[in-house]
Design a protein that fits this description.
The complex is a heterodimer of chains A (498) and B (203). Chain A is of the alpha/beta class. Chain A contains 24 helices and ten strands. The relative contact order of chain A is 0.12. Chain B is α/β, with parallel strands linked by helices and 203 residues long. Helix content of chain B is 24%, strand content 22%. Classes of the chains: A alpha/beta (498), B alpha/beta (203). Chains A and B meet through α2, α3, α4, β1 and α8 of A and α1, α5, α6, β8 and β9 of B.
């Protein structure tokens, strides 16, 4: 992989965060999706069993990946598909190009595929003189604006309808100033119908690949992937090798989890199962299906005991929708194809130096881990990455210095007490301009807390003679009878009286 | 590197690093949701995903209900895979190339079965001749029998069984839709503009 510029998440997020109204709008748009997800998850009594099972299926498949890949390949070939293998993005793109060249294809219609984004397929094909149209509405908006998706499921979540209106006015000739989503969607429908009918090949991603049957499954709402894979005779499906599942019955688990976790729908509108090429009523082949199996760093993730579970990701985006950092900093601040918690785990594998700031764009609240449908321990992995980056010498200088200072402090109780006293008093008496300035990032866009009068150690000395809560005491408290000598009660009084 | 070398390289890379994994889990069907009235739940879910659900006692009522809909009365090209109940004027097998279907207004098909938990209907596309017809048609209607409503997806995949290997099959749950502009739900993205589902009581 080529060396990318180093991404500093805080700097990249600064512009987005600077616009308070937009940040709040973005935050609430994603929280709306998160709430829909919660309602859907709660409608299924066996939700946790599904997550547990999905996690088990993925772990099992990742462990036995070579066998399942071979099984998938032979079943897919038996069904009439062509199977290609690509070790990296460059090889993937070359394979796509050679299929297109072989059939003299000039115009391609493409549905949403994070893998092709990861491989930067569009710019590559364009450089080879091939016209590529993204047909997912959100992706088309982003493509016309010459941007990249900011979310893996909702590519245009960062764009306002007025901005979509301007883009469509310029490119599709919609009325100036029009911003009604229904009107704009109808315009895109008309525009893209023409593209679908003119397309000579369709490229789709893959949500699941069934080792047992050699089939692939694509889940969409708009119907764009199906039009692209059904109108032109050539269908190219690109998939990461981690998309495998062993059996068709395993799809029941994943189709129940995917859309509920992603957008809060009970299932996507279309869940399409492709086994081999297009056929007519009599079973005669009327097209071609090419499946490209791509590694591009996935086997490297599999090698790592710490991060292997991240390969189970089904790209639902639930971890982004719930992430307090993602919701407020926007997807582009991650400068990686997959943003949010899962992106912050996956991106540094390919380029630890380039993406070293991403595992720090996290408060370790653990919400991502709680919503992940395949139970990837995301926040544990983000913490593990920080350790890894430190051991690789990739910690930023200010973090390295702070860690060193912290270590000195915690080793010396007297120094710790002295610095505590200094901090409590300094925060109280120092003039504002000495605290709130551009060098103190902790004082930017927030007020620092009011320091307590005394240290915890002081508080402890004052209270340690009190009876600790007994088992009976705790039972009483649960029953609503708070004992007067309960430490917690005293502590509460103390706080109030200050 | 050619694709064959890459194949070997990927498989070798995986095999040189042995990983312990759990055995393949099977879900306990006893633990799965069952609805007291799956047909009623199915109809309710179909409505909630943006389709219109009609419960009819006989398949011969389908045509009557459709004739109440202006887009059906005004339709110029109608393809029906249920000719006994709804008469079409377009034979999908007449065309070699699906591009000729671009003017298709209505398509009426049979659903193999429906799923109560998510309103999805399984469609075997082989009789359609062109699978594109399902997505290119402006309006779609699916007829499914009451006795073919299943509780959840586990029952669905069990029922499909080896039939899944037949070229192309899919679940349809509601009309095509998008919320890509500011999370505003718009029905009728690239596929059908509306979906009418008929649940027939009579066997």
């Amino acid at each position: 992989m080529s060396h990318l510029p180093i991404i500093q998440h805080p700097d990249a997020a600064a512009i987005f965060v600077g616009n308070r109204a937009r940040t709040q709008w973005h935050d609430s748009a994603l929280w709306f999706v998160r709430e829909k997800r919660d309602r859907m998850a709660k409608s299924i009594p066996e939700w946790e069993l599904l997550r547990e099972t999905a996690s088990g299926i993925k772990q099992h498949t990742i462990a036995n990946m070579a066998d399942y890949l071979e099984k998938f390949e032979s079943a897919a070939i038996a069904a009439g598909a062509h199977v290609h293998w690509a070790i990296d993005a460059a090889e993937h793109n070359q394979i796509v190009l050679s299929i297109l060249r072989e059939h003299g294809v000039q115009r391609v219609v493409k549905s949403k595929s994070m893998l092709t984004e990861e491989c930067h397929l569009n710019p590559f094909l364009e450089s080879q003189g091939i016209d590529v149209v993204d047909t997912d509405l959100g992706e088309r908006i982003v493509q016309l604006r010459r941007e990249t998706p900011s979310h893996i499921v909702l590519p245009a979540i960062h764009i306002k309808k007025e901005e979509v209106g301007e883009t469509f006015h310029e490119h599709l000739g919609t009325a100036a100033g029009a911003s009604d989503p229904k009107y704009l969607t109808e315009a895109a429908r008309g525009h893209l119908r023409g593209k679908f009918l003119a397309g000579e090949a369709g490229i789709t991603g893959v949500n699941f690949a069934i080792a047992e049957t050699g089939g692939i499954v694509v889940c969409t709402n708009e119907g764009n992937a199906d039009l692209g894979a059904s109108l032109p005779p050539i269908h190219i499906a690109s998939m990461g090798i981690e998309k495998l599942i062993p059996r068709a019955v395993d799809l029941a688990v994943f189709t129940r989890l995917l859309a509920r976790s992603a957008t809060g729908q009970p299932i996507t509108t279309y869940t399409s199962h492709f086994h081999g090429p297009r056929r007519d009523e009599a079973g005669n082949q009327t097209g071609q299906l090419h499946i490209i199996l791509v590694d591009n760093g996935r086997t490297k993730i599999r090698d790592s005991d710490e991060f292997r579970a991240a390969l189970g990701c089904i790209r639902c985006g639930a971890c982004m929708n719930t992430c307090p950092v993602y919701r407020r900093s926007g997807g582009h601040s991650y400068s990686s194809v997959v943003p949010g918690p899962i992106g912050s785990v996956l991106s540094p594998v390919s380029d630890p130096s380039g993406y070293k700031s991403l595992p720090h764009a996290c408060s370790l609240c653990g919400s991502c881990t709680d919503v992940c449908p395949v139970k990837i321990p995301l926040h544990h992995q983000l913490l593990a990455w920080r350790k890894e980056l430190a051991s690789m010498g990739l910690l930023a200088r200010n973090k390295r210095w702070a860690m060193w200072a912290g270590s000195q402090l915690f080793q010396r109780p007297r120094l710790f007490a002295a610095v505590g006293w200094l901090g409590r008093n300094a925060l109280r008496w120092t003039p504002r301009f000495l605290i709130y300035h551009r060098f103190n990032v902790w004082g930017q866009q927030r007020e620092l807390p009011v320091p307590p009068q005394n240290s915890f150690r002081h508080w402890w000395r004052m209270h340690q003679h009190l009876t600790p809560p007994t088992v009976e005491g705790l039972a009483d408290r649960e029953a609503g009878q708070v004992r007067s000598d309960d430490i917690a009660t005293h502590a509460a009084k103390e706080t109030v009286s200050q | 590197m050619n694709s064959h070398d890459s194949r070997q390289a990927i498989l070798d890379r995986i095999r040189t690093h042995q990983v312990e994994g759990p055995s393949l889990p099977n879900i306990d069907h006893e633990a799965l949701v069952r609805y007291p009235d799956p047909v009623a739940h199915f109809c309710q879910t179909v409505q909630s995903v943006g389709a219109t659900c009609h419960r009819v006692s006989s398949p011969f009522q389908v045509n009557e209900v459709l004739l109440d809909l202006a887009p059906f009365r005004d339709a110029r090209r109608v393809a029906s895979l249920c000719p006994d109940w709804v008469t079409g004027n377009t034979d999908l097998r007449m065309y070699d190339d699906p591009h000729y279907l671009k003017g298709l207004d209505w398509l009426i098909v049979r659903g193999e079965f429906g799923v109560a938990e998510n309103g999805a209907i399984w469609i075997d596309t082989m009789p359609l001749h062109h699978r594109a017809s399902l997505f290119i048609t402006q309006y779609l209607a699916i007829v499914v029998r009451e006795q073919d409503i299943l509780h959840q997806m586990h029952a669905a995949y069990e029922r499909i069984g080896q039939g899944i290997r037949r070229s192309f099959g899919l679940f349809v749950s509601g009309p095509s839709k998008t919320a890509d502009i500011e999370q505003s739900l718009v029905i009728g993205a690239h596929g059908c503009r509306t979906l009418n589902v008929f649940v027939v009581e009579e066997t």
